[in-house]
Specification:
Elements: H1 2-12, H2 16-23, H3 27-31, H4 33-43, H5 46-50, E1 55-57, E2 60-62, E3 67-68, E4 71-73, H6 75-98, H7 105-124, H8 128-146, H9 153-184, H10 189-194, H11 205-219, H12 228-231, H13 237-246, H14 251-258, H15 260-263, H16 267-288, H17 294-313, H18 317-348, H19 364-378, H20 384-396, H21 403-425, H22 447-465, H23 468-483, H24 500-517, H25 526-534, H26 538-558, H27 563-585, H28 600-618, H29 622-642, H30 646-667, H31 679-704, H32 711-724, H33 729-737, H34 739-761, H35 765-768
Antiparallel strand pairs: 1-4, 2-3
Helix pairs in contact: 1-4, 1-7, 4-6, 6-7, 6-13, 6-18, 6-22, 6-23, 7-8, 8-9, 9-11, 11-14, 13-18, 16-17, 16-21, 17-18, 17-21, 18-19, 18-20, 18-22, 18-23, 19-21, 19-22, 20-22, 21-24, 27-31, 28-29, 29-30, 32-33, 33-34
């Protein structure tokens, strides 16, 4: 049944227009029942998974290549599935109100459902190819969701940027998957993990890591691929809350966690995660201080959180509990704060913290939600985030060789995140100063805009007071799946006095002082401007312009409008490709022409073909050339008859007859040939033609002298009658074995015929007059 709940969003998505037509604008609220059903199903499996059971479900897809639509449910995939469907339910409910009056809300909900399916497919797939397809589907759907405002250049720019960056990483990820299958002999992830393949022993292990990390780092926005995430805040707030805090950006983290048992615990693995994670968490936290838009502050702090996750996973098994706990915590409080930002924008008409202040009085419930989100973001007790922060600090000491560096980096990051969390969540509600746009009045948001963030904040508080609710049921099974061994957590608000207490107090004190210093409002500071520019998308823009220029130059060179040039290019590529292959294949002594058994009339037919070829070359009129080409075609048909292929001969006869008739009908009105080419051009064309013909002749001789038997030919010969009930092998191949190809070819010809007919019937205004 896993497949049904994974694909449920994709199944319902095409029905969304009909649902809105029947239910009106309120349909958005009821669509939340789809992710709710998914959440209830996976929630019911918590006891099974927490007991140590792993559920697999296999469905044949492309069995010839060992590819299946298989699903794997263990502690890690269950945690992600619950976050995707649970937060998804609240986001859909929130969107029902937030997008209520939007023009293209039908399209929005359709893509959001498909995105939910894509993310569930990523975390639940038990097949590398299926995982990759779902992975790319997340990029595609996020492109449409980020670019929801189709009339906004910023929105379109951000959507394309996200698609190009994550899509490029996906191509490298595909290469990593192909190598994993080559090394292990299977695409099935559970088999790869359970059989204990030691990919770390491969001589291509560094390349495998590079390709895998490129896929993970681009999706999870690690430096230097981080710039697309803040720009993606052009998307509607529900998209930011769902894709860019709780789900899509965590896909890279999931990928690293999933393959940790067979790729982790290696110096290359640990040090790469440590360097990129540390860089991302420091830069993200620092840049969050400078922003004034609530969503951009949260976007940069999300960058920092993603860096923390990668950084913590670099500690090996000692950091896995902390990473899993922080993964869960971050989805709760960051989802709540993003939804809060949307509610503030909806009520006050602005997300700029320099214009907002004193919102606690007109919007008290939103103020309470903001306070819960801010305290969780800062890691204060009794929120679950406090326990997560303590776990992070404890994990930092696990790598003794860099213990002080790790602790220092995490504390520094947490100080900056403390300040940025207060400026995003608390600054708009504190004080009495409100500088809203002219004519903008504050109005209370609907309950559907307040309940989802309130519920997420409340869960963070509930699990902080009673951490046992998630410790053995969610955190431990997920950590065990990542490490490959059984892991037990000991979550609690108080573990006695230790060095964690002063470290925590230092974090709170310096974080609050940094918040009060208001460094983030120094917009005229050259230092901050240069810092943000250094880590913005200017490198991406530069590369994109370079690619555009290169594409223009290459297109201008290759697509110059001259058919002769196109043919020369094709022939030269063929000569180089075939020539180099045949030279590398071996000596030419094995290639020989054998005329034994040849009959005299075969030579006559061959001579006829040669005469027709010369006639076509030397003809001075188009009709003469067409007639000569017809002689060549009929000569080839005779050869087919002589060598026992009458069906192909009949096909050739038919084609050549029709071709000659069509050429005559089209060309008889055109004037005689005119010679516009110089002798040098003629000599060039003659050389290319002779070399091309010689190359094809050599290729045929190579094939004829090949001693190996073709498995494909044997298969068709043995199975044509048994499977397709046809004695003519060629016809069976075209109609049955390759029936889809033939259908596509017929379709293309039909479309071309319609196009030609349309052009013939098209009349200009002058003709009509």
């Amino acid at each position: 049944m896993i497949w049904l709940f994974v694909l449920l969003g994709l199944i319902v998505s095409p029905l969304v227009p009909l649902l809105f037509k029947l239910g009106g604008n309120k349909t958005g609220y009821f669509i939340a029942l789809i992710p709710l059903a998914v959440f209830v199903y996976f929630f019911s499996l918590i006891p099974v998974i927490s007991a140590g059971e792993i559920i697999t479900e296999k469905h044949h897809w492309i069995p010839a290549f060992g590819i299946g639509l298989n699903f794997l449910l263990d502690g890690l995939s269950l945690l992600f599935a619950l976050m995707i469907s649970g937060i998804g339910t609240l986001v859909f409910l929130y969107s029902g109100s937030y997008m209520y009056s939007e023009e293209y809300k039908v399209r929005f909900f359709s893509f959001l459902l498909i995105f939910m399916t894509a993310m569930l497919g990523v975390v639940l797939s038990d097949d590398l190819i299926a995982l990759f397809l779902f992975w790319e589907l997340t990029s595609l759907t996020s492109f449409f969701l980020i670019g929801y405002k189709s009339n906004s250049e910023k929105s379109q720019y951000a959507a394309l940027q996200a698609l190009l960056v994550t899509g490029l990483g996906g191509m490298f990820l595909f290469g990593a998957f192909i190598y994993i299958e080559y090394y292990t002999g299977t695409f099935t992830i559970s088999e790869i993990l359970s059989t204990g393949f030691d990919l770390r022993g491969s001589h291509l292990y560094p390349w495998l890591l590079a390709f895998l990390f490129l896929g993970a780092f681009t999706k999870s926005a690690q430096v230097p691929f981080h710039f697309w995430l803040p720009n993606a805040m052009e998307a509607p707030t529900p998209v930011s809350a769902y894709l860019h805090s709780a789900t899509m950006v965590k896909a890279g983290v999931y990928l690293v966690a999933r393959f940790n048992p067979i790729l982790g615990e290696h110096i290359y693995w640990n040090n790469t995660l440590l360097i990129f994670g540390a860089t991302t968490m420091i830069i993200g936290a620092f840049l969050s201080l400078y922003q004034v838009d609530m969503k951009r502050i949260l976007a940069y702090s999300t960058l920092s959180a993603l860096g923390i996750l990668m950084f913590t996973l670099s500690f090996g098994n000692e950091g896995i509990i902390a990473a899993v706990l922080f993964l869960f915590i971050h989805s709760l409080y960051k989802g709540s704060l993003f939804l809060l930002a949307g509610a503030v924008d909806h009520s006050a008409g602005s997300r700029n913290i320099t214009q907002l202040g004193g919102l606690m009085k007109p919007l008290p419930l939103l103020g309470i939600i903001a306070m819960m989100g801010v305290l969780a973001h800062a890691g204060l007790p009794p929120f679950l985030a406090f326990i997560g922060k303590e776990e992070l600090y404890s994990a930092a000491v696990s790598r003794s060789e860099i213990m002080y560096l790790s602790i220092g980096l995490i504390i520094m990051t947490k100080i900056m995140l403390f300040a940025s969390g207060f400026q995003a969540g608390w600054k708009p509600f504190s004080g009495n100063r409100i500088l809203l746009p002219e004519g903008q009045e504050i109005h209370k948001p609907s309950w559907f805009l307040m309940i989802p963030p309130l519920l997420l904040g409340s869960l963070g508080l509930l699990f902080g007071i009673f951490p046992g609710l998630i410790g053995t049921s969610l955190i431990d099974p997920a950590a065990s799946a990542i490490s490959g061994t059984i892991m037990k957590s000991s979550l609690g608000l108080w573990h006695g006095y230790s060095w964690l207490i002063p470290a925590t107090l230092v974090t709170y004190g310096l974080g609050y002082l940094l918040f009060r210093a208001k460094l983030y409002l120094q917009k005229d500071s050259a230092f901050f401007k240069q810092a943000e520019r250094a880590f913005s998308s200017w490198i991406y823009d530069l590369k994109l312009k370079a690619f555009d220029l290169a594409s223009y130059k290459i297109t201008k060179l290759l697509q110059n409008g001259y058919l002769r040039f196109y043919l020369i290019t094709i022939l030269l590529v063929m000569i180089l490709g075939l020539g180099s292959t045949m030279i590398l294949k071996g000596p030419f002594e094995s290639v020989r022409m054998n005329f034994e058994g040849a009959r005299f009339y075969e030579f006559i037919v061959a001579g006829l073909i040669g005469i027709g070829t010369l006639g076509a070359i030397l003809a001075t009129a188009r009709l003469s050339a067409v007639a000569a080409l017809g002689v060549v075609g009929f000569g080839v048909s005779l050869l087919f008859i002589l060598f026992g292929a009458p069906d192909i001969a009949l096909t050739q006869f038919t084609i050549d007859t029709l071709s000659v008739l069509l050429f005559v009908l089209v060309l008889y009105r055109l004037p005689r040939f005119f010679n516009f080419s110089s002798k040098a051009v003629h000599i060039r064309d003659i050389i290319i033609s002779i070399v091309s013909g010689a190359m094809i002749t050599l290729l045929i001789l190579f094939v004829l002298n090949e001693t190996k038997q073709s498995k494909v030919s044997q298969y068709y010969a043995s199975n044509s009658y048994i499977l397709a009930k046809g004695k003519n092998v060629v016809n069976v191949i075209l109609v049955d074995f390759r029936g889809a190809d033939t259908l596509v070819e017929i379709t293309v010809l039909a479309i071309a015929a319609i196009g030609v007919y349309s052009l013939l019937k098209l009349k200009s205004k002058e003709d009509e007059l």
